[in-house]
Amino acid sequence: MSNNYNYAFLFYDIGEKRVHKVFKICKKYFKHHQKSVFRGNITPANLIKLKNELKKVIDEDKDFVTIIKLLNRYTFEEETLGKDIKQSESLIF
Amino acid sequence: MSNNYNYAFLFYDIGEKRVHKVFKICKKYFKHHQKSVFRGNITPANLIKLKNELKKVIDEDKDFVTIIKLLNRYTFEEETLGKDIKQSESLIF
Known about the structure:
2 copies of one chain form a homodimer.
Chain A: E1 7-13, H1 16-29, E2 32-34, E3 37-41, H2 44-57, E4 64-70, E5 76-82, H3 85-92
Antiparallel strand pairs in A: 1-3, 1-4, 2-3
Helix pairs in contact in A: 1-2
Protein name (chains A, B): CRISPR-associated endoribonuclease Cas2
Binding site for Mg(2+) (chains A, B): 13
GO molecular function, one term (chains A, B): metal ion binding
């Protein structure tokens, strides 16, 4: 049985010409982001869609997108030093 | 029983004046990084040391550092689109 990953972190380094497009694609699938790090619940089906959209936009020789897949929100613990990101996130959305 | 987290991702948004110091601290504890994302095995004891060092440097009103703690390397799966980061990492170190 293969694992069903339902939570993901995504971060990238994308050339300036393409970064806005990549940002827009990622924002469709993830609620939370800060700088070039996105994260949130995502179904395996949506993860495939997301990857297909990204593949059409990125330059495979220059850019990268790393996706860290986790079973669910409870397989990790989060800690933040400094200002409360949750608060600034809610100002953005 | 509390969980023993032994793997972590760390990402930050730090003011220009302090970012180099923060980068240097994180590099002491983590082998791999790309842009402002670090990750790797880290003992609970080292995680505490890292946080204490960071707290001395960051401006709590302006900066943030998020640490995602995982039990081990096998609780997540990783996928990369685009260029091979592992390769570019080995060029840096």
